[in-house]
Amino acid sequence: MNKISRFNQPQEEKLYKILRDGYSVWVLYLDIVKFHEVEFRRGYATCNRILDELEKSIDHLLRQHAHLFKITLLECRGGDDFAIYFVPLNHTHFDFKSFIHPWLSSLLTKINNKIHEFVSEDLRLRSGFVECKAQAARSADYLLYNAVKEAFRLNKSEPDPYYDQRKEEIHQLLINPNEHLTSAYQPILDVKRGEIFGFEALARMKTPTHFSNIAELFPFAEKIGELYPIETLCRRSAIRHSSNVLAPREILFLNVDPQVLSDPDFASGQTRKLLAKKNLKPSDVVLEITERSAIQDFATFREALEHYRNQGYYIALDDVGAGYSSLQSIAELHPDFLKIDRSLIESIHTDPTKWALLETFITFSHRIGCRILAEGVEREEEMRTVVQLGVDYVQGYFVARPAFDRPEINPISLEIVKNHPHVKINEANTILSLVEPLPLFSFESSVRIVDEYFRAHPNIWLIGVSEHQRIVGVIHRDKFYSSLGTRYGVSLYMERPVTMLMDNNPLIIEDNTPIEVASSLAMSRSDAKLYDGLVVIHQQQPIGMVKVASLIKAMAETQIKIAQGANPLTGLPGNIAIEQEIQKRVNNKGSFTLIYADLNQFKHYNDSFGFQKGDMVIKILGKILLKAASAFPEQTFVGHIGGDDFVFITQSPDLKKICQKIISEFELKTEKMIGASHLSVALAVLVISAEQYFSSAEITEHAAHLKKETKLIKGNAYLIETLNHSHQNAEKGLEQ
Q1: pTM, to two decimals
Q2: What distance lies between CA 303 and its chain's CA centroid?
């Protein structure tokens, strides 16, 4: 006999048995739209009456249609939420979808008629329903629990016209993934080496599909309780096809939802077995945490993450700068890679705020020992900007689009990586450290196009005009609109080339120009141009611009630094800056070389010829060291300890060449100085390898000992030694 019952433990067990017996259970989840607003307007007592009437109306309608079902159950889930379970008779073909819509319409009419006796407004109901069927591999309680969750999500989300088709598509995908799922791979370019670092595996649905893009697949899979198996299949596909693209020593990036890390299939080592079949190790893989939902419990998640780190996997945090990816995630998870989101990269060459944010992330990454990957780079200007700012890796359409086989890298992107300078953020004493984006327009562009651009970008006040990648002039916003604002300005200029209104003689300086020199050049211009921006170029190609205000500020900061710590004789960084530089190199965990430069017989020379001659020799040596450093501006630091002692820190491997150049330059500069023939240069060259850790104190102590050894050699000389715990491997170079 058909029954209408309240939901309780015995009835729940009955549903489990019904499922195991092969019946379908339809779960309908109901609530009242914006019921909290009704409660606010009408009060608690009135809302209780409404809920009582809704329960009675549901009961009444269920009894009216009891002959269609083996059993119906009503569950009150708190507040205005209800779950109703329908079990159709097995001997009757029953179209539940055709039944439920008129049933809900009748319910809505009935409840509104009832409440009009005490409430003068209509209610609206929201619903979500799913069919729960038996599955051989799943328990009845698991199936019913997930059906209620799915009905709840459907109730709370916007209607999806393709819901049934998408659900069936995922069902087919789980049954036969090879027919529905494949993987594409997008290369990641190593900026420093100019080579492919690795590939990100990207899941792809084979056509036809009811998902407009792959991004829709995962939230839908989560909605219907199938996220874990779908993620597993995507991961397996990515590893299975990785041999199509990966070369030896290249890294595979795998997207992983945070929730999946607690998946028993993932934790059991299945992924490692798949990797082993492709001759890959966990250390060849970066687990890219894709935060589709916020991480609620960082402590628990961090423990799960450490499990995979201990196996050798690297960790990347995806979408940094967007969505749920936050500074807290970085602080809590200690990722090896930060992937900067496309939203921060898009048009970065024209947006000073984005430029500054990426600068901050790069500086921050150096401090915490992780690497920066700019993803979503789609334009040449974006590529030039992120490379110039010093990101470690680049990924995006401009490098190469995702492909099923190993793709060709865009040769222009390789050329940019090879030739483009890198900004040394907050460290360089050159104009390059102050560079901001300079939007470029072709010399053939019309005034109208520039006008539209200025109107769309109110914060841009200077643009460049280029021909064959060479700067030919600039347009200042205020001067541009002054010309258009004349009586016939618009009609005269609007359709003509922008060269009609450009300044064809801007101040153009090379990127390695010292800030002091750039400031002097800027201030020596005519009053009309005194506050115009400076264009910065590298090998004749424009890379950005500098505001005069930035120059003035930098000069002020430079003077303060000089007063606080620079050596007053040479202007070079003093002991505080030297200590900070050595500590920074130690923290970066990379190899570098410290050259301790000293003059032999300097005290005798200074006493014999006077301090003015002595100071002159010290200045000469300082300039020689700076000149030698200029060949490696991104890698080298020169400091003045005091007296005739200098420090030269570099990452260049050409140590003999550097030493020989310093010595030959010193001989050339001093050959005509009276008494200087008795002076010689001692270069103690200490190589610090990244493979062994030494504190800054140990490094300076070893450098001092090595300097003493070098000074025992007569004449100009250098001594190269690799610092290790056995303190061996010395090589001498003599220049008599």
Answers
A1: 0.53
A2: 23
Find the helix or strand (DSSP H, E) in which 686 lies: strand 680-688
Taking the C-alpha atoms of residue 235 and residue 247, their distance in angstroms, rounded to an integer, is 19
Q: pLDDT at position 679, please?
A: 92
DSSP helix/strand/coil, 392: coil
Cα 62 to Cα 1, 13, 25, 87, 205, distances in angstroms: 14, 21, 15, 12, 42
d(CA 184, CA 234) in angstroms, rounded, equals 11
228: Cα within 13 Å, side-chain hemisphere: 10
Query: What are 478's two structure tokens?
Result: 């205020």
Contact between 183 and 234 (Cβ < 8 Å): yes
Distance CA 218, CA 228 (A): 10
Q: Which of 356, 415, 350, 367 is nearest to 389 (CA)?
A: 356
Quote the CA–CA distance of 405 and 243 in Å, as a whole number.
Answer: 9
Cα 687 vs. chain centroid, distance in angstroms? 33
Say if CB 242 and CB 252 are below 8 A apart: yes
- Per residue in 572-619, pLDDT tens? 888 888 988 898 888 888 889 999 999 999 998 988 888 888 989 999
Alpha-carbon 151 to chain mean position: 36
Residue 95 burial (C-beta neighbours within 10 Å; 0-12, 13-18, 19+) = exposed
| Structure-token match 């069936």, residue found | 168
Distance CA 362, CA 357 (A): 9
Contacts of residue 435, Cβ cutoff 8 Å, sequence gap at least 6: 388, 423, 511, 536, 543, 544, 545, 546
- The 3-state secondary structure of 564-632, one letter per residue: HCCCCCCCCCCHHHHHHHHHHHHHHCCCEEEEEEEEECHHHHHHHHCHHHHHHHHHHHHHHHHHHHCCC
